[in-house]
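Sample intake — VCBS repeat-containing protein
Collected from: Leeuwenhoekiella nanhaiensis
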Amino acid sequence: MKTKLCILPLLLLCFLGCKAQDQVPSDFIPKGYVEFEKYFGDLNKDGLKDCVLIIKKTDTTNIVTNRFNKKVDRNRRGIVVLFNNEGGFELADKNYTCFSSENEDGGVYFPPELWFKIENEKLYIHYGHGRYGYWEYTFRYQNSNFELIGFDSSSNRGPITMRETSINFLTKRKLVKENINENAEGGDEEFEETWNTIKIDSLIKLSEIKDFDELDMYGY
């Protein structure tokens, strides 16, 4: 009996140790995917650095020849959000296929560059389009989900900002700033502001977005 009592605590410690070791970010990458990028920052106001994994599918059928006769990887990308619980990481949210590949054909333009940022306990998903401007989605963890609480965009013509849009989905307010200085050269724009109240029944959840390329923020 004494032998059994000695073995049980050791087995329990071994189990707990293995469990903690399993809770590393790479363990949350699903089969058929690889890590594409990784970001750290506090997303739930506990002072610990959480992890955002950008993953990419590895289906060889999605490696194709583009119009320039070059082989490119068109596998889509996804996101896995992990909370740090001191003993390891735990799954907070996921969406495996919401982002197009980094090798999409932009037509006459180059495709926008996708990057991520964690700041003030919020997750920012940013699409930069060089001299043409940008658009950015702001997510916050609430109601057991990462929900879209803000959208910002800028439409540019080189160094000149032609139009800026900012939507706050929590206050249901939308601001549009239009440059009315036709002779602006950049930095000397004159903006006319228009405020509107938007209609929205529920906030968009990160996990439910099928394709960021198909989100229409200008319909609000």
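Post-analysis note: The mean pLDDT is 89.
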